[in-house]
Amino acid sequence: MVFAMSIRLTSFLIATLSVVTACVGDGATTAPMPDASVADSSTALPDSSPPDASVCSPGLTLCGGKCADLTMGAANCGSCGHDCGDAMCSNGNCSVATIANVDHPVGVAAAGTAVFWLADDRANNFGNLDTCPIVGCTPQLIRVVNGDFDINFPLNPHTGPVLLTDGTYLQWIAKDATVGNPNNDAYSCPIVGCDHYSRGVAQTPDDVTQLAVGGSPRKLFFRYTLGSARTCPFGTCNNGNQTNISLPSDQNAVSIAADLTNLYFDDPFKSTVNSCPIGTANCAGKSVSLFSPGSQFLASNGTILVAVSGGQSVFACATTGCTGQPTTLASNQPNITALVVDAQNAYFALGGSPGQANGEIRSCALPDCKGGVKSLATGLAAPNSLALSNNVLFWSNGGITGGQPVPGSIQKLSL
Fold first, then answer.
1. CA-based Rg of the chain, rounded to a whole angstrom?
2. 170 contacts: CB under 8 Å, gap ≥ 6
3. Nearest 5°: phi and psi at 284?
């Protein structure tokens, strides 16, 4: 029996070797049979090296070792690492996300994980300062300061920043409702524990129109209509620590901006935009004229100064000067209501037509708007304020009361 089995096994091996020999003879190649007594790491262990981009299916891109759809992946929207946060990604662009629906917000600021805004409670004739996490008001908004000031800006729509934060303190423009003060003043408060008794106020001879922050340590700068400008430590500004800065004075002088080294402002007498080193008390006599015409909004990223003139044109000039010839970034932009800049772009809001939700947020690449004006958000109900924080753009929509009413809101867009 054993002998017969050995004959059959031998015949099977000979036949098998004959087939293999025939295949080799036809031109094919075969790898040698592995020796079971020796472990071969190249075949026994999985390949732990990161995948190559060529392994991704068509339409996918290798991002961080994983294949991603850049057209709809929220964590890699449009490019690897471009995170939309809690918003959706569509066609490679992050969608607009609504943080809160609120009545008549008129200013927005953001820092860290929180966004803040001023809300005009017209039914009760006072204002509130509210906050929410940037991911949304869950379960509800938090009231920072409750109804002891009025929000009634002298310019309609108001221009420029009216609320600022550095993550520790808040600064805003308002009227004190408890004493019937006729002027808009500069208010300050710590974010934690802010109330009627802990806030500070810096009063001026007339209405404060715009706020700016700059210098090191950080200082608040604010301009008022019939005077010049004043400055004080950011977050602790009050009547006792503000310092006057002499600027050209006129009821139409509203714009002011600052960076680490310079203060910028419009001169309504000469219709120019000027600069002055921070720390200079007499900027009216020692300022440098950068360009004309004048402006309603100014914003600096430290290298480029951007200005809005006539409510519809956007200009750019190096902070060191542009021989009086600024670059026109955009023209015929109807009803610009807000402006902010970062290192790469200028962003501006279009308030839209009265009674219609056709406002927009647009942007221009610095320094020359290469690629043209881009529309970032459309169909907005009267956007009136912008803020930037951690590569996210925030804005407040004032809402529409006539015709077909649209509630106000706080919205954001991951850039």
1. 32
2. 109, 116, 129, 144, 163, 164, 188, 189, 190, 191, 194, 235
3. -65, -35
Distance CA 216, CA 258 (A): 11
Cα separation values, 262 from 68, 212, 299, Å = 44, 11, 11
Tokens of 223: 């301009």
Angle at 164 between CA 258 and CA 326, to 5 degrees: 35
Is the bond preceding 217 in cis, omega lying within 30 degrees of 0? yes
Amino acid code (one letter) for 392: V
User: For 236, which DSSP code?
Assistant: -
For 122-141, b where at least 16 C-beta lie within 10 A, e where not — what string?
Answer: eeeebbbbbbbebebbeeeb
CB atoms closer than 10 angstroms to residue 314: 25
The token pair at 376 is 């970032």
User: In angstroms, rounded to a whole number, what is the distance separating the alpha carbons of residues 398 and 102?
Assistant: 9
To the nearest 10°, report the CA torsion of 363, 364, 366, 370: 150
Q: How far apart are CA 103 and CA 124, in angstroms?
A: 12
**Residue 322, Cβ neighbours under 10 Å: how many?**
17
Furthest C-alpha separation in the chain: 120
Mean of pLDDT over the chain: 81
Q: Which residues contact 356 (CB under 8 A, 6 or more apart)?
A: 400, 403
Mean pLDDT value of segment 12-27 = 38
Residues 4-19: tens digit of each pLDDT: 333 343 343 334 334 3
Q: CB–CB of 165/192 below 8 Å?
A: no
Question: Whole-structure pTM over 0.90, yes or no?
Answer: no
Three-class SS state of 339: strand
Q: Give tens-digit pLDDT for 37-70.
A: 443 434 444 545 555 556 888 889 999 888 999 9
Beta pairing class for 89-90 and 359-365: unpaired
Distance, in Å, from the CA atom of 32 to the CA atom of 20, rounded to the nearest integer, reads 12
User: At residue 210, what are phi and psi to the nearest 5 degrees?
Assistant: -145, 155
